[in-house]
Design brief:
- The protein has 247 residues and is mostly helical.
- It has one domain.
- The protein has twelve helices and no strands.
Length: 247
Amino acid sequence: MTDLFLFQLRRVTRSWQYLFFTVLLPALFTVFFTKVFGGQAVSAAEYQDHASDYMVSMMCYGGLGAALGATIRLSFDRASGWLRQLRVLPIPGRTVVAVDVAVGMVLVLPSLVVVALVGRFVNDVQLGLGTWLGLLGVLWLGSAAFVALGMLLGLALEEKAAGAAIGILSVVLAALGGLWIPVWLFPAGLELVARATPSYWYGELGRDVVVGGQPLLAAVVLAGFTALFAVAALAVASRRPLHAVAG
């Protein structure tokens, strides 16, 4: 299992798309949004609010993109015949799934860490050490919802549809979840839609930690999304085995 995990991890991290869209782009957005909106702050406290809020939002954006991109790859592996090849080896299907989940969770970390470092040393976000560690911890655990969603889509979609879904879904979740524009600026109806997305609660999870609150509600909602996506993925897998080429 360890060898397969390391091999799958190397496959993804060699991709420039992974590096750019899930690590570098969120870091650049963190600087851009902070300079645009934080630059209008009339006090140091207001600047800190803007800087920390957009840092959390871009950590979430990068985290969900990395989780989706790593696990939705199941559809590409099926189309290429890689999963059929694994079937002839003494590797159970559940091990293949466990490895992809582990890879997805590991690949979330670089985006979270890089954006946090940019927030601290470029945008001068001031948080205590415990808060920094708590923020990284809850956002890493919260990304499990998007790992499960990526698994569901990777099992359910064909290669071409999955390729489109990676980019479209990341943008839609970020936009509707209030990761680019705060939901309180949304029209009333759209704000209700935002609160029905996992990305909104993912952002709330991080923001609750930053302000020193207890992110219990956000954690419970995200756990519910994780369970929902995982059960749906298992249901799809039962009807469409990993090695299936079509159907």
